[in-house]
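FAQ

Q: What does a record look like?
A: Structure on top, sequence underneath. For example:
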């Protein structure tokens, strides 16, 4: 677990633009199993990848077509909630940061850490926007 003061600015980067923070497995179940589309960001302290993941997620949700729900869990903090979210993301291995789009409880698009590292935020956002345009 990281100290809360360290992760608070990273949490706020998403929550201030409308992401709902999920802190329990029950909240994760309820969000992902809801009707419609749900965008899940596994937030992370990792500077090299997360520094582009958060801006990409924020840019993507500005698209005309966007998920009905936008939520986040924080790796290294609420372990049970993150584990529950990652179970829904199988068969993809755990990675953080990562992003997933669900439709009616089914995983329809996944961006793993290796798709984020070394890529500019706009390229990641474009990938998400294409998925939003297809599924939302």
């Amino acid at each position: 677990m990281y100290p809360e003061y360290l992760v608070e600015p990273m949490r706020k980067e998403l929550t201030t633009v409308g992401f709902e923070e999920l802190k329990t497995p029950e909240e994760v179940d309820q969000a992902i199993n809801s009707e419609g589309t749900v965008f899940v960001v596994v937030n992370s302290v990792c500077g090299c990848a997360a520094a582009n993941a958060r801006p990409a997620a924020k840019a993507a949700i500005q698209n005309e077509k966007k998920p009905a729900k936008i939520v986040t869990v924080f790796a290294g903090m609420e372990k049970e909630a993150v584990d529950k979210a990652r179970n829904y993301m199988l068969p993809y291995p755990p990675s953080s940061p990562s992003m997933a789009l669900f439709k009616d409880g089914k995983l329809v698009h996944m961006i793993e850490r290796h798709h984020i590292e070394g890529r500019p935020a706009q390229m990641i956002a474009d990938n998400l926007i294409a998925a939003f345009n297809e599924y939302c």
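Q: Is there anything notable about this one?
A: Residues 36 and 61 are 15 Å apart (CA to CA).
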